[in-house]
Amino acid sequence: MIIWRKLALDKMNYHLPLESWSKTPIPRVSLDTAGLVALADLQTIAERTALCGSAVYLDVFVLCPGIHRQQTATELHGAEYPPTAALTSGYVFRVENPATVLYLQKVGKTGHLVHLRVSDKSRPKPNWTFWSSWWTPNLSPISKVFYLTAVLLNWMVVVYLVLTGDWWALVIVGILMLARLGNIAVVRRRSHPGWHGVPEPGVEGDLLILLSQDRWIRMRGSVDDLKVVTSGQWMRDMTFTESCVVAASTLLVYMGAALASNADQSGKIALLALLLISPALLVVSNKNIAAFQMFGRSITVEGEPKAYKRRLDLAEELIKSTKRDDWAIRLGMINPETARTTPVML
Question: How far apart, in whole angstroms, are the C-alpha atoms of residue 346 and residue 344?
Fold first, then answer.
């Protein structure tokens, strides 16, 4: 009986390793509204979704302001659908994939022609099936380092909160991770290959894309690969169930912000550090992504952008190389009268 009483007293007197640390390391400073940082409308998460073509479950451990904005990834291109010409056939259409347009806007340069190459990077099944849901293959070494640092930072904060016994702050981190998971699951369900036109196996394509602000893109690759990244629908409309999940995830973010005042000051500082440092790490990671990824296809930049004094010079050069000018007429790059009187140099 004495032994059991002693064990009970020892349990009552037990303290976590860091529980003796000061709960208010910065006296006279109130951080009750620290949770509002999570509500900032940053587009970092949505931008990564667009550049990677989807989301992976490892993203759950990257907590940034703007978790509730991930589904707006389809709006980041600013409603621009640039006119595009197939230099091999003269057919003119528009790039309908908003994620592809966003990538083109980022790599484009005013007054320059940027060369891109589309390739099929589909992984063989079943070896890649599991890992593709957890990892994005288009990351450069620098991008990987900063992304994994953001993941590690989240775990460091979790361990710190456990050791200090700040359970309210730990609950808030869990709520934000749950909101992140809900958005990731919806993004993965919405982003599946759909309609991309009639297959044309073995045919090579060559596209000229005219972006706003006089940014010109020449994209080459297999016609089927070009169709996958430029046509059809990237993320379909949400179903009723998916809309409910996104709404619930948004409410979870606001709930986490509302509950932040219950955490200790040291826990609030840890949450602030997590929500301020993680987006900075993710921005650097997004900036250094090696290639744009979409449905197993990869778009990479080839060479350096080539400058032109005027758009007509670009049109005349491409007309000479393609030996046809119908695409230039349809894009409005040359006058039809000029095209009829000036023969194409063969």
Answer: 6
The rounded percent of the chain whose pLDDT value lies above 90 is 59
User: Residue 230's closest CA among 88, 324, 97, 330?
Assistant: 97
Range from 21-35, 176-190, 268-282 carrying the lowest mean pLDDT: 21-35
Q: How far apart are CA 68 and CA 42, in angstroms?
A: 10
Q: Which of 40-44, 111-115, 123-127 has the lowest mean pLDDT?
A: 123-127
List CB contacts of 253: < 8 A, sequence separation 6 or more.
38, 39, 67, 68, 175, 176, 179
Quick one: how far is CA 221 from the chain centroid? 23
pLDDT of residue 29: 65
Contacts of 185 (CB under 8 A, 6+ apart): 245
Which pTM was predicted?
0.85
Write down the pLDDT at residue 265: 84
Q: Tokens at residue 17, please?
A: 């390793």
Q: CB of 80 within 8 A of CB of 106?
A: no
Confidence of residue 129 (pLDDT cuts 50, 70, 90): very low
292 CB-near residues (< 8 Å, 6+ apart): 51, 53, 99, 100, 103, 138, 229, 298, 299, 300
Give the C-alpha separation, 224 to 97, whole Å: 15
Quote the tokens at residue 33.
């509204």
